[in-house]
Amino acid sequence: MKNRKTLTLSMIAVTLLTTYFVLQSFRVFDSNTFVAKNGVLSLQHWDWQEEKTIPLDGEWDFYPDELIVPSPDEDVFERYKNKRQSIPVPAAWDRYRAGNATPYGTGTYRLLIQVPEDDRYGVKLNTIRNASKVYVNGEELGSAGVPSKTTEAYRFDYKKYVVLGNSKNKQIELVILVANYDYAVGGIVNSLYFGPGDQILAKQGREKFIEAFLISGYFLFTLIYFTTYLQHKRKFRYELYFSLFSLAQAVHISTINERWIYLLFPEINPSLQLGIQGISLTLFVLFFLLFVYYFFNMSASKRIVTALSTILGFQVLALCVLNMSIDLMVKVPLPLNQLIVSGTTAIGYVYIFIMLLKAYKQKTDESDYVLIIVFAFAVYGILLAIVLLFDVDIEIPSLLLFLIMVMSLALLMSHRSQQAYNRVEELSNELLEFDRMKDEFLVKTSHELGTPLHGIMNLSQSLLEGEEGPLKRKQQESVILIHSVSRRLAGLVKDLLFISKIKQGEVSITSRPIEIRIIEEVLAEIAYVMPPAPSVQVINMIPKVLPLVYTDEQKLKQVFFNLIYNAIKFTKQGTITISAQIIEDQMHISVEDTGPGIAAEYHDLIFTTFYQVESSRSRESEGLGLGLSITKKIVESAGGRIWVTSEAGKGSCFTFTIPLATKQQLLEHNEINNHEMNEQITSAQMRIRETKQSQVILPTKVKGSKPYTILVVDDEPANLKVLINMLYSLHYSVIAVGSGQEALDIIETEKVDLLILDLMMPHMTGYEVCKTIRQEQDLVDLPVIILTAAGQLSDLVVSFQLGANDYMQKPVNLKELEMRIESLLLMKKSAQDAVEHELSYFYAQITPHFLFNTLNSIIMLSWTDQQKTQTALEHLSTYFRGKLDYQKQRSLIPLEEEIQLVKAYLAIEKMRFEERLHIEYNIDETIQTYIPAMTLQPLVENAVRHGISKSKNGGTLRLSIKREQQHIQITIEDNGVGIPLEKQQELLRGRNERLGFTNPFRKLSLIKGARLQMNSEVGIGTTIIIRMLEIKDNRQKF
Fold first, then answer.
1. Which has the closest alpha carbon to 64: 102, 98, 104?
2. How far apart are alpha carbons 377 and 359 in whole angstroms?
3. What is the DSSP-derived secondary structure letter of residue 955?
4. What kind and span of H or E run contains 814?
5. Judging by DSSP bridges, how do beta strands 917-923 and 930-932 pair with one another?
6. Higher local confidence (pLDDT), 995 or 113
7. Are 551 and 624 in contact (CB under 8 A)?
8. Mean of pLDDT values over 104-114
9. Scanning 181, 201, 283, 465, which has the fewest C-beta atoms within 10 Å of its C-beta?
10. What percent of the chain has pLDDT over 90?
11. Which residue has the higher pLDDT, 430 or 843?
12. Which residues does 633 contact at the CB level (< 8 Å), separation at least 6?
């Protein structure tokens, strides 16, 4: 209600002021007693201090069709007294020119002014149509254009100007020569003002100031809203049109009244000035129309706006062409030109008014502003109509009124912007609250996820340990996958908790002076976590000699790790360069890559928690988008900052700063180091004595009562001694070595059930040893426990990614070590039992098949040769002795036993087929290895029955067993009928039910490092090649 009351009072005030100015222009309130009569104005009783200026209104002497130049020495008007007549001023001269009703022609105005005293007086001349020249007491003092009786010499100009002159004998003769050949109204159409020279100049100055204020205001609006339009990224087009509308209005005002345009362009042609006035007026209407349309787009018809915009645009183009050609300007009459401009702009004004009315009728919270705008616009339109119809001088009030309307529009836009800002602030507060709730949710969720995740890890671990019975190999692989995925999820949960701790300020930074060369350790770690592609080169360009930095060593390593790891992930070829330089008291460290780069709009976003660029760069990688966010938080917590320089397709450069250590920080650190050094010297002396006492000769072997052998690797003899004692107390057999290479050599020659490996060793680190082992043996074959003194998160991550089964921090707790060893050995035993059960199943499956085929062969022999039948039964007894030996009921048997079985079978088949079957053996008798039982015999039988026996002329079977480097190669070759390609594919894919092939194939697939290859051609024969690692013990299986 209060706003409504203020609004109503404002409109009433505007109405009253406008009405006053209109009536004042018609002299309704004119109390002026000084009015000219019969060409004389008597001011003898004029008090100029009370009335500063007075209008020169009344009856002037007028000499039509004459341009009389007065003389200071004689009265030249006596010669034209017969043409003298009276004419009211201000008024158009049309009906006062005897016998000539047209506004075109010439005339001379004359007025005698009687003043109270001689002084310097001035006259302010307003609109005189359309050229004028002023004389005071016979002296020419000013002009506008060139009044002339001929159109050739005539030059129009109706500018406002001031003349100053001195009175003589308390009298002033004011003569004005006027000519008009191009306007519909001629003569002195607005009041002239008279007064002391300083007062006239002051009046002119006030009017100039008002116009300068208006022009400046519009230029200011132009600058503000065009800048706002650019700041809003060209989103709101109405801001652009409002700025252009203000610019056009400023230019328009500069071409009327006091014509400020002449200050910038003093030599401008009046015709061109009039053209600019018409163009600016049209543009001002065009841009105002578009502004209202885009600002109140719910209140406008697009078709009408488009049509009016097109018309106004063509008009601007026509005016530009017209003003560029003097010939065209002469051919197009000025009244017609003005009529066209006025008509089209009037139509635009009307539709703008309609749109404003419709906007007001919507009754929104903007309606109060719109009402003022509509009201001011309507009153402004009325004033324009009055000026056009009656040619009265009320331009300054109308311009001020229009400025009020424009300011209301600006306030309305500010109101809308404020509303948008308030809404944004409200949404921002909501987002902050949502962000707080999200963080709280993530923290709670992370804590809640931790318990089931540890449950999953423990359950999967117990399954691997065989607590619920042995698992088949496929089941083991699935459980191992579940275990590793749950560990990875646990790592993500840790990252989420770390982020929440950073946000809550719970992460402490323990700063001290450190060397930047710690990056070499990080590079060594990353080289094993994710080695760069062969086409990528990592270049460390950090100088060897640099000042110390003051920060947290572990946190700095984490920053290095995240940035370099990130660069390696996304760089497929090129280089990754790490560099550092000193700038003032900061060290600037850069990690630059030649990867795909990051578009500029994502530079700030990539440091946001959980943000990932929606492109192949991010989609090819794993993770939640926490790495860079954590990095930024750590850097800022340590007093630095981080930024990225990158372009899409041109690589990226991440740069962060670390403060340098000050002299005071270095002194404090040295004092602490001196104290620590003394303690370390004492401790080192004690360790030397302990080492001498505990010195062991490497490699050391200790026999325990349990059937498991544990290999321990550490370069510190004291640590080895402690571990040997611990493991011996747990009754395990122990082998201890001091280097990674020695460990690899022991694994090649000895049976090792578990490996305990120190992480940091000279020459060959624990990372390298673990990576080398995993190339040959998987997690189940040889479990690995990593020992480290640092206990860093990055060490743990690297260890697991390189294939470690577990991770412990020194010093080792005996009970914890016992539990972890037992857990891993149970897992290994469970996996072995599962494979053994599966082999036993295949063995049980093939035995009846073998017996059935062998007995068939003996029965066939019994009908033809009893002696051979007796020999065949002896060979069969060999097979039974092996089968019924209880100690040999194992899944793996010595190779020589399998060969003996093969030879027994082939001897029986030789008796049957005689010369149609030839057998050749090429067996290296020195090979001592184990092989799944009943593996070679079914393959040999398959070669005889389905290959050689079906050949018309029989064939030859060759059995070759030899050593090739670290592998044993077994070749079974025949020159029988061969196997078609289609059937070969069925056999190798397990889709064929022929037990003689699928059974051995499946057994060999359970043996690590074993491969079966088949080559066959129809009509030529078949070759089967088995390659497998040498198995030295029937317990060293899988």
1. 98
2. 14
3. E
4. helix 814-862
5. unpaired
6. 113
7. no
8. 93
9. 201
10. 14
11. 430
12. 499, 502, 503, 507
Three-state SS sequence of 253-315: HHCCCCCCHHHHCCCCCHHHHHHHHHHHHHHHHHHHHHHHHHHCHHHCCHHHHHHHHHHHHHH
Q: Which residue has the higher pLDDT, 458 or 211?
A: 211
Q: Residue 366: what pLDDT?
A: 66
Q: What's residue 21's pLDDT?
A: 55
- Out of 59-73, 230-244, 591-605, 846-860, the most confident range is 59-73
Helix, strand and coil percent figures for the chain, each rounded to 5: 55, 20, 30
Q: What is the pLDDT of residue 864?
A: 66
Rounded (5°) CA angle 756-762-768: 55
- Token readout for 173 is 């003769």
Strands across the sheet containing 652-659: 536-540, 574-583, 586-593, 652-659, 642-646
What whole-number distance in Å separates Cα of residue 1031 and Cα of residue 355? 94
Identify the CATH homologous superfamily for domain 32-191: Galactose-binding domain-like (2.60.120.260)
The angle at the Cα of 749, spanning 795 to 465, to the nearest 5 degrees, equals: 55
Q: Alpha-carbon distance 836 to 91, whole Å? A: 124
Output the pTM of the full model.
Answer: 0.48
Instruction: For strands 806-809 and 131-136, give the pairing.
Output: unpaired
Tokens of 674: 């001196």
Is pLDDT of 889 > 70? no
pLDDT tens digits for range 166-210: 999 899 999 999 999 888 788 998 889 999 999 999 988 888 888
How far apart, in whole angstroms, are the C-alpha atoms of residue 407 and residue 413?
Answer: 10
Q: Judge whether residue 377 has pLDDT over 80.
A: no
Q: Give the pLDDT band (50/70/90) at residue 909.
A: confident
Q: Output the CATH code of domain 834-1029.
A: 3.30.565.10
610: confidence class by pLDDT, cuts 50, 70, 90: low
User: Which residue, 100, 111, 108, is CA-closest to 67?
Assistant: 108
- Domain 513-661 and domain 834-1029, same fold? Reply is yes
Would you list the DSSP string of 175-187? EEEEEESS-SS-E
Which class is domain 513-661? alpha beta
Give dist(CA 857, CA 909) in Å, integer: 7
Cβ contacts of 781 within 8 Å, gap of 6 or more: 828, 1008, 1038
Strands 754-758 and 784-788: parallel
User: Is 528 or 612 the better-scoring residue by pLDDT?
Assistant: 612
Helices 814-862 and 473-503 sit at what angle, rounded to 10 degrees?
Answer: 160
The tokens describing 578, both together, are 């790490």
Identify the CATH number of the domain defined by range 696-812. 3.40.50.2300
Q: How far, in Å, CA of 175 to CA of 136, rounded? A: 6
Nearest to 534 by CA among 569, 507, 483, 574: 574
Taking the C-alpha atoms of residue 766 and residue 786, their distance in angstroms, rounded to an integer, is 8
- Give the span between the Cα atoms of 864 and 859, in whole angstroms: 9
One-letter amino acid at 619 equals R
Q: Which residues pair with 1015 in a beta bridge?
A: 1023
Ramachandran assignment for 121, one of left (phi > 0), alpha (psi -120 to 50 degrees), beta (any other) = beta
Any residues with CB less than 8 A from the CB of 151 and at least 6 apart, and which? 181
Q: Choose between 967 and 501: higher pLDDT.
A: 967
Q: What is the mean pLDDT of the chain?
A: 78
Q: Give backbone dihedrals phi and psi of 55, rounded to 5 degrees, phi first.
A: -75, 145
Q: How far is CA 957 from CA 190, 217, 953, 1023, in A?
A: 131, 109, 13, 10
What whole-number percentage of the chain has pLDDT above 70? Answer: 72
742-757 pLDDT per residue, tens: 999 888 888 889 999 9
More reliable by pLDDT, 795 or 658: 658
DSSP SS3 for 163: strand
